[in-house]
Amino acid sequence: MNSFLTIAMPKGRIFEEAAELLRKAGFQLPPEFDDSRKLILEVEEENLRFILAKPMDVVTYVEHGVADIGIAGKDVMLEEERDVYELLDLKISACYLAVAGLPGTKISDISPKVASKYPNVASSYFRQQGEQVEIIKLNGSIELAPLIGLAERIVDIVSTGQTLKENGLVEYAKITDVTSRLVANPVSYRIKEQRITEIVDRLAEII
Ligand code: PRP
């Protein structure tokens, strides 16, 4: 008998690709999975329970053990530095973290400011560059910041590059590539190793 497992899934952009990957790996996900507003979905035939979380919160649920495993972007893992195991690169939702701003602009000498949804990533990047900047945390529409004069630079995800382009911004540096990862709670991994390994193997086979 398979043990029951809870998987934290990221809502939004990554969800569709993640659900498609699970289906390709043979997991029987019901059709209502894709457009339900429910936040907990059980798939009894698979002994699986899915919780649908904000992408940034997936690693929090997994670290606290209320989800055994989860699908989280590398960006979230770098930002949150949670105590979770990274089991597999799912190679979905590929994008990258970059520094961007208005073309031909410099970071202010007097009070340099960088806006980001990733304050830890941004601050460690600029520290490594030897630059002392004030980080301003935003929760979305980061590209607004340089346009409206809140910051000279942003640190954000670039996927197609469309948002930067449409807002007249340019990239100044690439920080790191990002894809989604399968992560596990360390205790769950010990207790439910067989079941989790089985899932990793099924996914690894189709990646
Ligand atoms: C993300 C990211 C960029 C955009 C990049 O924002 O923060 O703004 O996508 O994608 P692109 O390179 O394909 O244009 P998201 O749409 O998730 O919303 P947010 O602004 O609320 O973070």
From TrEMBL:
List the keywords (alphabetical): Amino-acid biosynthesis, ATP-binding, Cytoplasm, Glycosyltransferase, Histidine biosynthesis, Nucleotide-binding, Transferase
Query: CDD domains, per this entry?
Result: PBP2_HisGs (cd13595)
Catalytic activity line of the entry: 1-(5-phospho-beta-D-ribosyl)-ATP + diphosphate = 5-phospho-alpha-D-ribose 1-diphosphate + ATP
Concerning SUPFAM superfamilies, the annotation shows: Periplasmic binding protein-like II
Where in the cell?
Cytoplasm
Q: Its Gene Ontology molecular function terms?
A: ATP binding; ATP phosphoribosyltransferase activity
Q: At the top level of its lineage, which domain of life is listed?
A: Bacteria
Task: Tell me the Gene Ontology biological-process terms attached to this UniProt entry.
Answer: L-histidine biosynthetic process
Cellular component terms (Gene Ontology): cytoplasm
Q: Pinpoint the ATP phosphoribosyltransferase catalytic domain residues.
A: 54-204
Annotated InterPro entries: ATP_PRibTrfase_cat (IPR013820), ATP_PRibTrfase_CS (IPR018198), ATP_PRibTrfase_HisG (IPR001348), ATP_PRibTrfase_HisG_short (IPR024893)
Under which pathway is this protein filed? Amino-acid biosynthesis; L-histidine biosynthesis; L-histidine from 5-phospho-alpha-D-ribose 1-diphosphate: step 1/9
Query: Quaternary state and partners of this protein?
Result: Heteromultimer composed of HisG and HisZ subunits.
What this protein is reported to do is described as: Catalyzes the condensation of ATP and 5-phosphoribose 1-diphosphate to form N'-(5'-phosphoribosyl)-ATP (PR-ATP). Has a crucial role in the pathway because the rate of histidine biosynthesis seems to be controlled primarily by regulation of HisG enzymatic activity.
Q: What is known of its domains?
A: Lacks the C-terminal regulatory region which is replaced by HisZ.
What is the recorded name of this protein? ATP phosphoribosyltransferase
> What is the organism of origin for this protein?
Peribacillus psychrosaccharolyticus
